[in-house]
Write a structure and sequence with these properties.
Elements lengths: L1 E3 L10 E4 L3 H12 L4 E5 L6 H4 L3 E2 L9 H25 L10 E4 L3 H16 L5 E3 L1 H7 L10 E4 L3 E2 L2 H13 L4 E4 L4 E5 L2 E6 L2 E5 L1 E4 L17 E10 L9 E3 L4 E5 L3 E5 L13 H14 L10 E9 L6 E4 L4 E5 L5 H16 L19 H9 L1
Parallel strand pairs: 1-9, 2-3, 2-13, 3-9, 5-15, 13-20
Antiparallel strand pairs: 4-8, 5-7, 6-7, 10-11, 11-12, 14-17, 14-18, 15-16, 16-17, 19-20
């Protein structure tokens, strides 16, 4: 990706994307594919969600109580099926995309009842779901603790290395000569025929602007008030995992997600601590203990990594995607589903920014995602 410092000049872009996480990069890619002149401005904020996520693409497990969210998520998963090989081809690099599924072990009788409900909902949505017998389960994950003899497999749940996916998206933009500015946008202002983004030593005008600032979005002056708060999540990782199963394992307390190179990610905490990114030994120990209780061989291993990220949370918790004004748009608030919903978000907002009709009914942004819903709710409560 071509890079310019804050003093760069050149033809005014049609669209400036503020935020270089996976969602911002994929929005820039969609706009470039549509023929727009696009630039990105990114400050590489420490703790940003994209590089610190687990990379799960889990439409059923992430939406067991909301059928509408499940359908949206399934559609985005379907977009991932095409996006993953396209990114690999455009970038020339692997993004470690895996479609082995999610495995939900039965831990107790109450858990069996919950998983029966998840299975019924999955089948009702046209998704595959099947019970594994003890032999299949042990073949896939021989490290499971004794006594766990059943599990539900959701084959339609995928995973991706989110860090590699973002690198590949950036490389895909580089091949299209999309410029990226390394700067912090502190304010935006509309002017006749354009919108201007400004920061310390940085200013850039564009025909339209899309803010994808994650948890930091409310810090951009000039935007309407958006109820986005940072939600901290801590994760740990182990090395040396060699089970045949290369997908994700989910329990009510934590998830375990495979990576290439025999790595296993364990996450994640949910902490309302503002923008504090400090690591807690207690949280790390709790994650390690929970994982070891399910997978006893981990008890004798030390985590090789411990990190934290900030998810952008909303009250619903649906993301906030849509038009704020004639030239100003937003795509943020995805909480822990940013990787899952990234391709759908990009394909939803690109035609809106370009004043085009979407070529797929699924790309019409639903009311539950539009930014104006919070103002409407406030009017109703007053």
């Amino acid at each position: 990706m071509a890079r310019r410092d804050a003093s760069a000049t050149g033809p005014r872009p049609d669209v400036l994307v503020v935020g270089g996480g996976l969602i911002g990069l994929l929005i820039a890619r969609e706009l470039a594919l549509a023929g727009a002149r696009v630039e990105v401005v990114d400050d590489r904020q420490e703790g940003a969600a994209s590089p610190n996520a687990a990379g799960m693409i889990a439409p059923i497990a992430e939406s067991i109580a909301d059928q509408a969210f499940a359908r949206i998520s399934i559609r985005s998963r379907d977009f991932w099926r095409d996006l993953a090989p396209a990114l690999e081809q455009e970038s020339g690099m692997s993004i470690d995309y895996d479609d082995s599924g999610s495995l939900l072990p039965v831990l107790d009788p109450a858990g069996r009842k919950v998983l029966d409900g998840i299975k019924a909902r999955a089948l009702g949505l046209g998704e595959a779901a099947r019970d594994l017998d003890p032999i299949e389960l042990r073949e896939l994950v021989p490290d499971l603790r004794p006594g766990i003899e059943e599990a539900l497999l959701l084959p339609g749940e995928h995973r991706v290395d989110n860090r590699l996916a973002a690198m590949a998206a950036a490389a895909a933009l580089r091949h299209r000569d999309v410029v990226v500015h390394r700067a912090t946008v502190e304010s935006v202002a509309e002017a006749p025929g354009q919108v201007v983004a400004s920061g310390d030593g940085f200013q850039r005008a564009a025909g339209a602007l899309v803010v994808c600032g994650g948890a930091w979005t409310p810090r951009v002056h000039g935007l309407p008030a958006l109820p986005i708060v940072p939600v901290k999540g801590q994760m740990i990782a182990f090395d040396g995992i060699d089970w045949p199963f290369t997908g994700a394992i989910r329990t009510p307390a934590f998830y375990a997600v495979r990576r290439a190179g025999r790595r296993l990610l364990i996450g994640a905490s949910v902490e309302h601590a503002g923008f504090d990114l400090s690591l807690s030994d207690e949280v790390g120990a709790d994650l390690a203990a929970g994982a070891a209780a399910l997978l006893p061989p981990l008890k004798d291993r030390e985590p090789v990594e411990h990190w934290a990220g900030l998810r952008p949370g909303t009250p619903d918790p649906w993301p906030i995607v849509g038009r704020l004004s004639e030239r100003l748009h937003v795509a943020t608030g995805h909480f822990r589903n940013g990787i899952l919903l990234a391709p759908l978000t990009a394909r939803m907002i690109a035609p809106l920014v370009l004043d085009q009709q979407p070529d797929d009914p699924w790309l019409a942004i639903p009311e539950v995602m539009l930014p104006g819903r919070f103002a409407a709710a406030e009017r109703l409560s007053s």
